[in-house]
Inverse folding.
């Protein structure tokens, strides 16, 4: 079964600085998708960024970018120019491209942004 | 468009009682999913509906959990009788036939005391 590991339960970053959240995963599949979701306190979980495994180029969405290392099964999220609104729980997730629709999530990283 | 709506947002019940959670997906989304996060652990898949049919219920923990999706619209997840280990946040998500568009609700925080 697929597993997703987030080894950082909590992280903090100074406003305007850069922070990297780690995620590793385990799978025997070659075709899949990886995601980072963000959940602010008591609010809806929203998609931050998505990466298709067949793409070598790292995905980027404004201040958010990923470092996707397929061979190492690593998928870290970099947040540049951190803002107070970035404070949230971040979940890394895996989804097969071929078998089933369910997501496999990590345990989450709680990010605090210090003014 | 309206998002995925879940209610109640919070529920505190006593062990042995029954609780029903509701999820209203985005209109037109055939796929509806339930997930659960127990405190400090990963979010785990519970089940998947396609319209009114259960496509995959492999994540349902036991027969105290009953999910329904009336007419392929909203869905309910009933826990009867509730146990302490059922405490957690229950998330609902929906997607259209396109598997990419997966929208989550805000979750229902269930506390069993």
């Amino acid at each position: 079964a697929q597993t997703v590991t987030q080894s950082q339960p909590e992280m903090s970053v100074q406003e305007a600085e850069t922070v990297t959240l780690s995620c590793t995963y385990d799978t025997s599949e070659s075709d899949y998708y990886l995601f980072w979701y963000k959940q602010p306190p008591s609010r809806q979980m929203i998609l931050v960024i998505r990466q298709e495994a067949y793409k070598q180029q790292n995905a980027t969405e404004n201040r958010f970018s990923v470092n996707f290392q397929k061979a190492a099964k690593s998928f870290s999220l970099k947040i540049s120019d951190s803002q107070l609104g970035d404070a949230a729980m971040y979940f890394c997730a895996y989804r097969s491209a071929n078998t089933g629709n369910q997501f496999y999530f990590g345990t989450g990283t709680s990010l605090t942004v210090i003014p | 468009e309206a998002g995925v709506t879940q209610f109640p947002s919070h529920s505190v019940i006593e062990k042995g009682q029954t609780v029903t959670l509701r999820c209203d997906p985005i209109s037109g989304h055939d796929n509806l999913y339930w997930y659960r996060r127990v405190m400090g652990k990963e979010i785990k898949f519970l089940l998947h509906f396609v319209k009114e049919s259960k496509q995959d219920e492999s994540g349902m923990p036991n027969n105290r959990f009953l999910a329904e999706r009336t007419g392929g619209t909203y869905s309910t997840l009933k826990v009867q009788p509730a146990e302490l280990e059922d405490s957690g946040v229950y998330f609902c998500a929906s997607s259209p036939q396109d598997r990419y568009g997966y929208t989550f609700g805000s979750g229902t925080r269930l506390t069993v005391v």
